[in-house]
Model the fold of this input.
Amino acid sequence: MAPASQPERAVAAPKSNTDVVLLDLVEFVAEQDKPSAREGLVEIVRQVRESGTDVFALVDSELLYADLHACVCPELTGVVVSHLESVAQVEEADSLISKLEDERGIPPGTLEMVFSLDTAQANQDAFEIASASRRITGLTLGRAELVMDLRPEPSGEIHLMQYLMQKLITVAGAIGVPAYGAWWRTPDRGLLATPENTGEAALRGRAIGFKGSFCVLENQVAPMNQGFTPSAQEATEAGKLLESYRAAVSEGTASIRQGDRIIDSGTALRARLLIDRAAACEAHDKAKVDALAGRPVPAP
Amino acid sequence: MADHIAVHRSGLTMPVVTPRFIDNAWRRGCDFINMDLEDSVPQHTKGYARTLIKDAITNVTKGGAEAFTRINHDLVLADLEGIIWPGLAKVNYPKAEYGEEIQLLDRIISRLEQERGIRPGTVEIGADIETSVGVANAYDIAAASPRVREFGGAGGYDMSRDLGVEMFVGFDQFVYGKGEVELAALALGLEPHTAPFTANTTGSVGDPDRAFREAEAARKCGFRVGGGLHPNVVEPQTRGFTPTQEEVDEAHQVLEQYRQLEVSGETWAETDGNIIDRYEAARARKLLAWSKLCAARDQEKAEAFARVEAAEA
Done:
């Protein structure tokens, strides 16, 4: 996440090895800097895109017209819409993006939308909001704990967040899109944390079903990537499990015992997904290296 | 009371049919007294109990507390006819399950306010969520009337019985229901009346240290509403829900640092391991406003107390 008001930081962001650059017009841009940040945004999108990284813009649903006019261009992957309160806002954003796609020579329906459900009303109506546009490719809570003013419990958990995270992940599953976020605990707040705490938040986040997360500081990117990537050991174990399962199936059984665990089709499918995920992460990491080195990157 | 944000840090629920509780209630220093017509009142005295409320309102409020009454879920009309009198601030409605129930309460209360010379909209409704059906309809219930200003529940004895879960366990058995209820309250801009989980495996209701720890933890999570069953917990709850002088000083400091941040054009800064940004500034402002309300409420109660003592002397 790089403030759109700091072009040099935004353009340098791909070097941090991030998968996505999120150009922020909402959280880390001072109110008085927003007009000038919007003016230069398309140029920043183009420059970031040249490095091969996906580029999103974080827009404010209360300032939709200004923000979307400022960022929509063929090089933009999509937008993360924050401070949503209603289905009507989603429909408004969707139709405005359609209009801008048409005006700016972008194939219709290609710009993605990720919804940041960071208000209480958005979380209350999560399923309806998430179902309101076919452009949706992800859900996140964004900085909900700050927007909703949720605070640390004595346990170190941020109050209400376990409920909100599970609700978001369930809704995302029902819609069929990934949920983005990490399981932050105090003293972490608003996507800010030390690299060590970021890594732990990412590991916990992956464990409860998030697929990746935004972060704010460059030194958070590596622990975030590591936390959300299956380790080599996990992939090896999954491979062995799958082999045992296949051998069992070929002998006519549907489940086998391995140590103290039962392996069946469900376990095998999980192992298969982990192996696929590990391979996808590896391929994506290689593509990023090639892109940064200026080598041609095959289409996904 | 209806014109300003309510300060409901501490309160006692007591059977209205027990004179020694009611007669001493004003001395307890609570922000509110909740006179019960429900679980603590024997079935055969329900009719008599509601006739006591009118006089008891004057009695329990003379030390500055607000007067609430908990009615019976199945005796709404008779209970409301008996209790809506000038001075009553809130009707607590147990086991709320449908928005229509709250709308019915609202209509009856509106009529009684008009008939009995009470300013329209004065009497608040406390819609207590204590069943699974109530959790499923939480948002509709909370949204059913502007008289619902604080909203919570989804825990406690009735909820544990309804769900068939144990009451005194070392984990939070009500995560989902409390989440639904709190989210509904936040979405509607109501004061959430809930608390972070703290294990109470003994079922203690009168331990002052425990009451303070719980209130303090709840306040640090942003909650402001208390209440209990034992006089021992009144003072610790009032104290636990009131910001300390140190926190007030810190809030002033945060606002000063935020003013400097705004001048610099940055959106955030880190000072001594703490983040300063617009969210921290908003929290600081909220804490200072709450601190002022608490002080005003304490002053109000002290003055009322002094008046009674002077009159008795």
